[in-house]
User: Fold this.
Amino acid sequence: MPYQLCRVSGQNGVRSNSTDFHPDRMIIYHWSSFAISATAAVESFTALATFKAYYTGSLWVYGLVIVALGAMGSAVQNTGASLMAWTFGAGPMLSNLVLFLMLIFALALIVLEHHRKT
Assistant:
């Protein structure tokens, strides 16, 4: 069955407590439905909904947060490499390699634990 474009408006039972909800920006593509007869209620249907959302925040704030997180990550890495070099007498290259391998190991454990739970 070809696509059928259906606009959904607030009168069709779409309700939200949010003042930012705009049903006129919502489009539903409905392409198949299943009913026992032409007059019976639809028991099952397939649809794709698309929504438009507009960014209302400050892009500068997000940029500053990204830069701050990068700076903190760099500081943590530098501190860890320096402590490892000072404690074990390892060079900076070996310290960074060990920290990198520890990070890979920790991320692998997190992924495996998440995969085990699902």
Notes: Helices lie at 59-88, 92-117. The chain has a mean pLDDT of 77. Residues 25 and 52 are 6 Å apart (CA to CA). The first strand starts at residue 4 and ends at 7.
